[in-house]
Amino acid sequence: MHPPLAAVRDVVARALAEDVLPLGDLSASLVPAHVRARACFVSRGEGVLAGRLSAAEVFAQVDGDLKVDWHLDDGDTVTPRTAIGVVGGPLCSILTAERTALNLLAHLSGVATLTRSYVRAVAGTGTRILDTRKTTPGLRALEKAAVRAGGGHNHRGNLADFVLVKDNHLAGVSIGEAVRGARAKWPMRMVEVECDRLDQVSEALAAGAGAVLLDNMTPDAVATCVAEVGGRIPVEVSGGVTLHTVRAYAGAGADFISVGALTASAPAFDIGLDLES
Amino acid sequence: MHPPLAAVRDVVARALAEDVLPLGDLSASLVPAHVRARACFVSRGEGVLAGRLSAAEVFAQVDGDLKVDWHLDDGDTVTPRTAIGVVGGPLCSILTAERTALNLLAHLSGVATLTRSYVRAVAGTGTRILDTRKTTPGLRALEKAAVRAGGGHNHRGNLADFVLVKDNHLAGVSIGEAVRGARAKWPMRMVEVECDRLDQVSEALAAGAGAVLLDNMTPDAVATCVAEVGGRIPVEVSGGVTLHTVRAYAGAGADFISVGALTASAPAFDIGLDLES
Amino acid sequence: MHPPLAAVRDVVARALAEDVLPLGDLSASLVPAHVRARACFVSRGEGVLAGRLSAAEVFAQVDGDLKVDWHLDDGDTVTPRTAIGVVGGPLCSILTAERTALNLLAHLSGVATLTRSYVRAVAGTGTRILDTRKTTPGLRALEKAAVRAGGGHNHRGNLADFVLVKDNHLAGVSIGEAVRGARAKWPMRMVEVECDRLDQVSEALAAGAGAVLLDNMTPDAVATCVAEVGGRIPVEVSGGVTLHTVRAYAGAGADFISVGALTASAPAFDIGLDLES
Amino acid sequence: MHPPLAAVRDVVARALAEDVLPLGDLSASLVPAHVRARACFVSRGEGVLAGRLSAAEVFAQVDGDLKVDWHLDDGDTVTPRTAIGVVGGPLCSILTAERTALNLLAHLSGVATLTRSYVRAVAGTGTRILDTRKTTPGLRALEKAAVRAGGGHNHRGNLADFVLVKDNHLAGVSIGEAVRGARAKWPMRMVEVECDRLDQVSEALAAGAGAVLLDNMTPDAVATCVAEVGGRIPVEVSGGVTLHTVRAYAGAGADFISVGALTASAPAFDIGLDLES
Amino acid sequence: MHPPLAAVRDVVARALAEDVLPLGDLSASLVPAHVRARACFVSRGEGVLAGRLSAAEVFAQVDGDLKVDWHLDDGDTVTPRTAIGVVGGPLCSILTAERTALNLLAHLSGVATLTRSYVRAVAGTGTRILDTRKTTPGLRALEKAAVRAGGGHNHRGNLADFVLVKDNHLAGVSIGEAVRGARAKWPMRMVEVECDRLDQVSEALAAGAGAVLLDNMTPDAVATCVAEVGGRIPVEVSGGVTLHTVRAYAGAGADFISVGALTASAPAFDIGLDLES
Amino acid sequence: MHPPLAAVRDVVARALAEDVLPLGDLSASLVPAHVRARACFVSRGEGVLAGRLSAAEVFAQVDGDLKVDWHLDDGDTVTPRTAIGVVGGPLCSILTAERTALNLLAHLSGVATLTRSYVRAVAGTGTRILDTRKTTPGLRALEKAAVRAGGGHNHRGNLADFVLVKDNHLAGVSIGEAVRGARAKWPMRMVEVECDRLDQVSEALAAGAGAVLLDNMTPDAVATCVAEVGGRIPVEVSGGVTLHTVRAYAGAGADFISVGALTASAPAFDIGLDLES
């Protein structure tokens, strides 16, 4: 599922504004307006495509005379030199749109590609990879869609989605009191409890939590907690998980592993726009 | 120099909107409104701070009753457990603002920290590190300020700043014709020419270019071009430069080395917000 | 006359944003993208249609592939099971747009329907029904168009339209002084005076007011004031008028009766969107 | 919990813009700028207050020189002539702000008051009253906060919160397949299933739905479904419930009753702003 | 009366954004942040001040640490070297704000000054000077306030204010039919009729028009029409009136003369910002 | 080169909003919706066209059913009664769009026409005419494009483009120090120095300035400075240059003459929209 069109339109309008105002593209102004061209999006590495809707929106907003034909969609795998799509129309408009379109594709495909790495690292274990709220300001909707394109799943969309009781929310009340308060105040919502220790897991379970988040535990500690939970509610693991350690956590029985790096530290995936000669 | 306040306000307003609408912070609603607290921004690694103005704006927009005292400013170096600043006020407001403030600090400090690494790698050579237009959509102003905080310099702010003639802009005219056209159309602006070969450098020089950008050359080829230019105009190197190769390019005599990764692939710098007990 | 397109576009963009951000329509994501459908807007009661332009804009903004054919226009009467229009296209897009389109149609048709009730209650008397500035924040333009669709007329569009001197505006000056001041300051504008007593009506008349607004009077008191005015300027009645009392006020000779409830208290008119099987 | 400040600021800015642009308040311009006054918000009926934060924001945006002191907060009960709060400052600014502040208070208190009526109608049964997505376009965040002020609870904030599988989402798959698909795609989210018949309830239960929504059933049919569910998951009732029938549905054992009218058809609650003499 | 604050805030935010994004003020970055200064707005010619609220807003948005003290207000007369106000605070912020503040003051004072010239040209005749809708896109509210500062009055704020029937609106109906239609559709609004000939004036009068606009007539023709109207409704003159001809039109008995040049062709009034040494 | 589409869309949306909200075009509502018409943009004087893209956008935003055919483009010369373009479609939509489209065309063509006058006044001298940052707030992008249409060139787009060191930026440092600081901080940017005296020109030259701006000098003083510079860097003249004096400055050898009046004081160019009968 692509990100909501409303979010895409808004992100693209801002990205173009910051790249062309107030004078427009000085360099592209050197190209006569009648020169037309075709250019192909080509991947420079191995990864997962994301951001197609955003790139298309860039061209649509720059010049209604530009047409894009896509060969692939978000979630598709690319290898070096894979042709992703072709844009045709006035050369000066292609040049003006190029960097903004590539920035979106590169960033979002970077997110999807890193997500796919984590998903593959836990393949066969039944564990699922989640994102977090550690997203780039302004790009929440697009990055969360890119995580889905990479095979991951979305944790909370934002603070208004469901309840996650952390240590700092307790403020003098017990986990049990907090969970009961949350369920009373926000019925029909997931109430998840962040736990640092086994006894907190037990307390959360007893209070009727909908899930527990095991924060910064070792795989062994996770396994102990998973045993305590006994499949009654989902167990999420978070905190400092890397590509090297993620499978150990999956092996410990976590239902979900959430990874902030998916959106906060994904390197751009290299995609170019090659003019057809 | 901090980023323009107008940009900061806008980015923060959007970041908060995407994190709290439509229902607000469900979890923070469990904390009684009268509970007050203090929390300290603490670095978890070694790096360079950036984004202070943005983080301050987050707290200001969430609750006018929150006060922040900063111990450090953008560009300052931090090591693990450095206290960066303290925020005090209603606990529920601190919790609501926490993630957005941290996302901005972590991303922008990540950019500053990576920039500093490149700057240090060329220390003593006189070469300067530049950013590019490969910025995160919507964050151009903030990321370019973070590059400055890291000791780098800003290449074009956007397409309206100055002229960069690339191969694709030629469209049947020679480099010389393009440069003369650019200087006629956009007087008082830098006209830089991207060159892939030595003869293009000579042509650009002859046409009165203000700078040349050597794209994807080896350090040896760069050295040859630098000799050809002979100090008459600045020489910029770009394309696939890494922390491992950057010093070789500096040694080849480049005045500037521009690095897209500074803004496109900087991992988040880990900063936490620790509640004071 | 439909509401200004500029207002409609803005209202719809905000309504969609608040319903789908940041993750989009989770439920509609379960429907395969290739499934297409047709659905019919059907009234569930007796009333007056309003909001067609807004509903159409919802579909246009959600998915350019959706097409709507309308059988009726704003101001048309509907009875239970009247087919209002048909939308066709991707089922998932229809489902995402459905609630926002219906919310607009239901609210605005509710305003039109209540307006029509008041208009009918005074039928044959020559009295006209006006709205007020008691509109829903953000929906002024759309609700005032719905009042017109219901056969009512628009009082002031906003505070910048014309002058309405109320008791609180006097601040130590007489009605006469206030009216003369208003006519001097805002020539070519209507200057209406709110009156609670007969002597104020006389004073307003003498001062050259363009209309009087009789606030919270009985029908008898209105009749006395109407006689005093003697047709020289329009007489408006306002304040606590209900469907039960409106005809008595019309019978007392009021030229206009303004009713805040038209926009502030109109219940939603029930309209459904039935999928064609 | 008040609505998010970000939403309030935005709604108020738009409401003021539509009431004063382009020329400002013509009538208030007749009042000399130096005249100062105090005015008191006074209820005209029995109800529940909501919208305090919005009204305060109106005054703040109109004139920083206005000060408001509140005697009551959202959720407090008012009776005729209850003093709610006092605003003081330049009279012309009070007059300009008055209608927008009152429109927000009246509409949101209307929502809270109607909600309280439903909550009281089911008092003692353990059933809770929920709102729906039938909110006024642009006011989702404020109306959902008003429902909470009235003692109700919030169903989905929007389409991105959790999954509600309706008949139209099935598109050729069974309820069981749809639920399993939803749980696979959106783990950690509530998956609720709308049911028209008892066998659908059984199917939803078997598929692991998190809740069932019984649509347009009689209280007797609800009781049968409640018995079938046997307390394993929450049961929500929706569709045409009125103040007259709501207690019968509560008596039938529904955990939740959702009422679109709370936000779609709440009449404005009458509040005035009385100038102190 | 100053323009609405909502309009001022919006105009200033956009003006600053277009002047500082994305990199901020490069030149001001050379000034150390701790250097403080005071600077005085000084007029360079004879005219009328307007735009004080806008200039103040510029400083407020650039840096909350800047303070402005005004010696004069909108509508006050200035001569060469009149001190208008003083701003104090960080020098770099004063320099960044300077041009935007001056652009607003110069443009709006230019409008006020030109208006004052027309007002003086008709002094003693009782004729009043009106603006038109020929305003600069985006500055309607500010320019119309500047006209008032210059002693002029505001014609329609926009198309939604009142009815002006021009030749093009007739579309096959007579003036009489059009006026009656307008009064039926938009009661309580001024209905003005544009007339090119005396017989049209008579027709408009007979139909109950609220005012006539005599378009592009000679002063003699205006006098004839004024005699025909006989004081029953206001007479407005428009079309090609200049400072040289305006008094002749006033002498012909026009109640109002509307002048598009007030807002469309007012030269900037020269105001400087002098740093105190 | 037309202005950036992003800027045009934004300016037009605001211009329309301020002209039609909240009630729409009352007068155009008198025209039956089915009446169609064609109207021709006709110049009323001699000048240069600019603003075509903006005018077209007005019609597109008012009604998608309007079509415009242009006979001329920005930069083309017009004489009295030149047909510029034709718009066809619903008459009521043409009337609603008319004033906003004309305001943009008239203002921007006014800028282009005044620019052309200055350009012609220096014809044959090799001197080029530049604009300044004295633009109308909100219209920077459109006005700078109009200057280009008139044959002028753009000085800085905004404060973020390049460095202009004025007296006020020195704050205790010498011109030499300031230039070196600027070149160190903002490499690859033009660093221009404003000079009031010959010795400052020498100092700027010695420090490596990229250009000098001679402020408020006589043509003789300019000639002296030009001789001192000796062609090494461009010389710009600014300050109080008029159509009467501009050629003298050009004759003194200035490379560029910047004229604030181009955008700050250009009278509207008269263009009408004539309905075809």
Can you identify the CATH superfamily of the largest domain in chain A?
Aldolase class I
CATH 2nd-level architecture of the largest domain in chain A: Alpha-Beta Barrel
- Counting helices, strands and paired strands, the structural category of chain A is alpha/beta
The tally of helices of chain A reads 10
Please mark out the parts of chain A with pLDDT under 50 across 5 or more consecutive residues, or reply none: none
Mean pLDDT of chain A: 97
Fraction of residues in helix of chain A = 40-55%
User: Could you name the CATH class of the largest domain in chain A?
Assistant: Alpha Beta
Query: Total number of β-strand segments of chain A?
Result: 12
Question: What is the makeup of the main sheet of chain A?
Answer: 6 strands, parallel
CATH overall fold name of the largest domain in chain A: TIM Barrel
Quaternary state reads homohexamer
Largest beta sheet: strand ordering of chain A: 6-11-10-9-8-7
Strand content of chain A: 15-25%
What's the SSE pattern of chain A? Answer: HEEHEEEHEHEHHEHEHEHEHE
| Largest interface chains and counts | A-B, 66 and 66 residues
Distance N terminus to C terminus of chain A? 35 Å
